Records
---
Amino acid sequence: MLVAAAVCPCPPLLVPEVAAGAAPELDAARAACTDALGVLAAARPDRLVVVGPADEPGPESYPQGTPGTFRGFGVDLDVRLGADHDLETEGTGRGLPYGLAVGAWLLARSGWADAPVEGVGVGEALPAERCAAVGRDIAARPGRLALLVLGDASACRTLKAPGYLDERAAPFDAEVARALGAADSAALAALDVTLARELKASGRAPWQVLAGAAGDAALAGTLLYEDAPYGVGYIAAAWS
């Protein structure tokens, strides 16, 4: 049963070492992520599942202790998913996708030790119906479930954005922010997969996993942050 969810953006720039001199520009986003994680801790879950974007459709599972790194961004910084090192990850050669690595960093930054952690990666090619099924499967396991859901909105909000300016981006992001702030699972489930891909919204699949996990649960949502400082939509919200 899903008892709480935190929704956070996952640009590597959230990590101050990666952002370097630009780090203060995302202080408000980091603070919102911290607040969202506080909601998860207050819910006293039995387990936490971190859902984030991946290169392959997935779903791909990442046990507690799976390593991640930001060395590809020129920073000597490694992370692990959760507090403990799971020996099963030794020798697999598979580390966390960048989005889940940001999630691992957020958890370490908050000192998360409230429940065991596992990761699930889902990619833009995973259909909406399959995302919902993944969410239902996660929620069907025994115990009180919390989700940390990672992903960015459109990358087309300005001329200098990674995807250049697309007039459809702002309305898309506004609807996503509304749905996440209102814990509107039906609206998230109905997001246009093709439009999300064209707008380079990496959060679409993770958000639809959240929608499937929530089902008919009577959760309330709070929008904690919504902005596009680099032409990319960043949204943070909490459900409880």
Note: The two ends are 12 Å apart (CA to CA).
---
Amino acid sequence: MKLYYSPGACSLSPHIALLEAGLPYELVKVDIRAKKLENGEDYLKLNPKGQVPALGLDSGEIVTEGPVIVQMIADQASAKALAPAHGSAERYKLLEWLNFLTSEVHKSFGPMFAPTLNDEAKAFFKDRVMGKLKYVDSQLAGRDYLMGKQFTVADGYLFTMLTWGDRMKFDLSAMPNLAAYKSRVAARPQVQEAMKKEGLIQAA
């Protein structure tokens, strides 16, 4: 498999999932602005959406959309329990988290990366994200991870967005559950490895 990624973008989530799953993969860096691969190839020919992540399967098929990709990865390594079994109540709870993260949190983060957006508009979206994170904080009370004791692909997704919050100087001091959760996920060896491979933290 090939993971088409941009360092620190939402493609970090499936990168974490691949490492947690223990699946073999190749990293292919994408220049999102130029829509080019490192070798100069046109990324749009491969993925007309022009976004990351994209997962190239051995069959030649390209799968896009992070919440779909991470489930596909989890299902290929079911023994790792990165996603509950299909049809189970827990699987629907995972889907609920993935949908909340992509539609409520991720989409509110997006405008804050726009260089043309004024500070007032960015403050609006920051308040919106912080409100969503307060909800997440409340749900993490007494839990190690979003689904309870077990790390799942939803945790890799949430953690990715929390790293964006770091870049934007988000203050999580009023959300102790979320702050502890962030540290817990960051300490996972596979999360550390993904961040090192993407140049987000320095290798020891």
Note: The mean pLDDT is 96.
---
Amino acid sequence: MCGRYSFTQVAEAIADKFQVKEVPEISPRYNIAPTQQIATVLVNSESSERQFKMLRWGLIPSWAKDAKMGAKLINARGETVAEKPAFRAAFKKRRCLILADGFYEWHTQDGEKQPFYFRLENGEPFAFAGLWEHWEKGEGESIESCTIITTEANELMRPVHDRMPVIIDSKNYEQWLDPEVKKTELLQSLLQPYPTEEMTAFPVSTKVNSPKNDRPECIQPI
């Protein structure tokens, strides 16, 4: 699964990397947790252009009776995402990029949990494969939310955990975001483990265990 990650990029870098025209200044985040507002890129249904948008992490299906359901849907398995009732509508027409530059996973040994930080070898920002949804309750409450798709772990990840978030190759951003692309087989072919040789990982401080700690020390090797 993916339950914690970082995104520390400035607006100019975001606009350049993800080809978005308008990006607000956002604060660097070193320990992003579920139910928080997170940076995404999606296609605007009216202009058909890429749009930067902050969404709540934890997808709330449009048919959900309660927004609390989103806390249980922070991840979606790539192998079944096209079939699950909570995700299949979004998978067809509401796909997004969830912006990141690293993520955490915990390895348990002798009863102790050691956090590890995973990022690209070149240190550049990247995007998780995401889905987003619009939810309303009556006239007073409206939430736009999202989930991160996961897949089987690559060789780097496997000693720590058997799952990892799907990192979309930049050459596939266009296909992934395009709501006109609907073929399940094509879309699922993009949901592969990221190449091991292009990633690196190292242990970090247990300070990351608490979402209250959102500081640069979280991503420093120990």
Note: The chain has a mean pLDDT of 96.
